[in-house]
From TrEMBL, chain A:
Keyword Zinc included in the entry's annotation: no
Native source species: uncultured Armatimonadetes bacterium
Key words, A-Z: Membrane, Transmembrane, Transmembrane helix
SUPFAM superfamilies to which the protein is assigned, alphabetical: Multiheme cytochromes
Gene3D superfamilies: Cytochrome C3 (3.90.10.10)
Keyword Membrane: yes
CDD domains in UniProt: Cytochrom_C3
Ranges annotated as spanning the membrane: 12-31
Protein name: Molybdopterin oxidoreductase subunit, predicted chaperone protein HtpG
PANTHER family: CYTOCHROME C7-LIKE DOMAIN-CONTAINING PROTEIN (PTHR39425:SF1), LIPOPROTEIN CYTOCHROME C (PTHR39425)
From TrEMBL, chain B:
Record membrane topology: Multi-pass membrane protein
InterPro entries linked: NrfD-like
Organism this protein belongs to: uncultured Armatimonadetes bacterium
PANTHER family on file: POLYSULPHIDE REDUCTASE NRFD (PTHR43044:SF2), PTHR43044
Chain spans, region Disordered: 1-21, 484-503
Keywords: Cell membrane, Membrane, Transmembrane, Transmembrane helix
Protein name: Molybdopterin oxidoreductase
Ranges annotated as spanning the membrane: 52-76, 96-116, 128-146, 174-194, 236-255, 275-295, 316-337, 357-375, 382-404, 424-448
GO cellular-component term (any): plasma membrane
UniProt biased composition (Gly residues): 10-19
Family: Belongs to the NrfD family.
Compartments where located: Cell membrane
Pfam families, A to Z: NrfD
Amino acid sequence: MPQIFHSSTNTLARASIVLAAIAPLGLMMALSAMSRTYFVRLNVPVQQPVPFSHEHHSNELGIACQYCHVSVEKAGNAGLPPTHTCMSCHSQIWTNSPLLEPVRESYRSQTPLKWNKVWDLPDFVYFNHSIHVNKGIPCQHCHGNINQMQITYKSVHHSMAWCLDCHRAPEKYIRPREEVYSFDYNLHAAIERYADEHAKATGKKLEQIPRNQVEFGQLLVQDANINKKQLSDCWICHR
Amino acid sequence: MATQITKTNGHGGVPGDGSDGQPERFLEGNHTYQTLGDKIGAIVLTQKPPRVWFIVAALAFLLVNVLLATITYLLFKGVGLWGINVPSGWGMDIINFVWWIGIGHAGTLISAILLLLRQQWRNSINRFAEAMTIFAVVCAGLYPLLHTGRPWLAYWMFPYPNWLALWPQFRSPLIWDVFAVSTYMTVSLLFWFIGMIPDFATLRDRARSRFAQIAYGAVAMGWNGSAKNWHRYETAYLILAGLSTPLVLSVHSIVSFDFAVAVIPGFHATIFPPYFVAGAVFAGFAMVLTLGLPIRHLYNLKDLITARHLDWMAKVMLTTGLIVFYGYLTELFYGWYSANVYEVALVQNRLFGPYKWVYYALLFCNGFVPQILWLQKARYNIAILFTVSMFINVGMWLERYVIIPVSLSRDYLPSSWGYYTPTVFDWSMFIGTMGLFTLLMALFMKFLPAINIFEMKDLLHRMTHSHKNGHGHANGTDGHVTGEPLQSGFLPEGTPSADRNGG
């Protein structure tokens, strides 16, 4: 009786052991890499009815974030501007621009523009803009350099691990309240100002000038009355 | 097989067989190495399955479709389809999980513990008991998986680096369960597979069709019956036996922690781990008999699975049954002795509450019926053995019913008391898993060597040797290892091994 298997099968069998060890690992790494970029559509501009540019409005013209996102300091939702807000300028300038036709049409017909969401949190997550802004978490931390975006895209992936990174150690990212809207934050200037104000208010110098973000952040967390202990409780976000 | 361990030479090393010099009657008929291989190999290779096999397989296939339909509907609708709801958040899903896991215990017990205890009588039943274990664990695993409600996220239960920045809750026995059951499944599967390799080689060499040769050849993994092969095989098998032995005890202990760690009256008892493990062995042996008796009859295996085997399995059942019954009595005592109003209420609830018929049926099935096994006549009577094991199968299911809904539906707050009723989907799921189990067993009987060929040859070898040499015979261990390849696998019987010194 001839051999059922050719002798090269032995090599194949041995190779399959190595492959069996490597293949799942490689597959998992590929999946994990894809799910961090491709699946969440990171850095992919989202099509909008009007090609609104944050770069132009925020960076070049210097319009404050709150001018359009009026409820960002007061409510959970930062708020998208009604067409009326757009028209407060665009009834005067660029009145004939074809790009702005959908805005004018919306104004005429009294139907809101349908913007497409860029950051869409799952419904089981409770998120409130006002508490973050008022305690000193800057726009920039969650939205990246949105002031440089021609068309808005997701620049930061809001995974749970990412949320918890800050919730477990908010001192890493917190800023003085007046710096939350800034996109050119200078840490050392902020520390100096903080030290000056402290001296003015209490008549005493700071015991130790903070040397970096974390040391400064610890003071700010204390000042903002942030209860770090409960920040990573499940119910904080899953209510 | 681990010759070094099962080696009992002529001194009657099997406890209980007496030292009358008579060989163990665990193999009957006038078998030679050749006829053993022929007989067991033929079931797979040449013999057409008995007509009953087709009927059973078809019926089981039908039930598997019921299972698939139920699961599909369940995935669409959610677990509300089952009868579980506040206050009884656990119902037939968990009952069946524990029931199946319990059945999955006999395989490893027979394979590993009896191997380490040098019980030769395990040889003809261990293979299908192991298969039964694996199929039972497959059925068991379906329940907690679907009970989560979102089975596609089941991988969350494993600790892996993730975006949620969360670990599983290691303080929860439900997570211990994940590890216990998946470890048990892995080790059992490896143990089963490695144990079959020499037999796969036998089948490969006996197969006539090209397809069978390739299929069995692939799973035989190049086995050539050399002393080196046998040496490595023995080592691997012993290591796995050593690994699975603590698993037999740990898996059901951990399953019992699902209950014992909770503070629900009737759950929170220290007796649970030993009582659950004994119950599992009890249920497992009952299922081995439930399956073994028809298989033995249909495939005419009375010479390999002897009356003596059945007798011993019945004895194990009787023993573990008594431990389980002691557990029931302890629970009653515990309720009274705790002087805790809730525990006392639970005992009263069991004895006189709305589920009292379940409790009495349990006592009848598990406490009363098995006592007939004290009689030797009953242990040798196929019909009685089958009936008793069926009663035990039912009884063990009722036991979990008594523990789960009876405790959960009446806990500390009388205002939230309720009554648990399974829905039609609970039953279709349960019957479906029985179909899955039966179908897998049927396929196993058709395509895999249901009885360990080479271990039976080894048994025969030892029997004939103890005949010739009586008490004075004492084989050297190494001599026996190298002698092993003569009896199975690649080499024809009686050919000296080419690789005699390889081990």
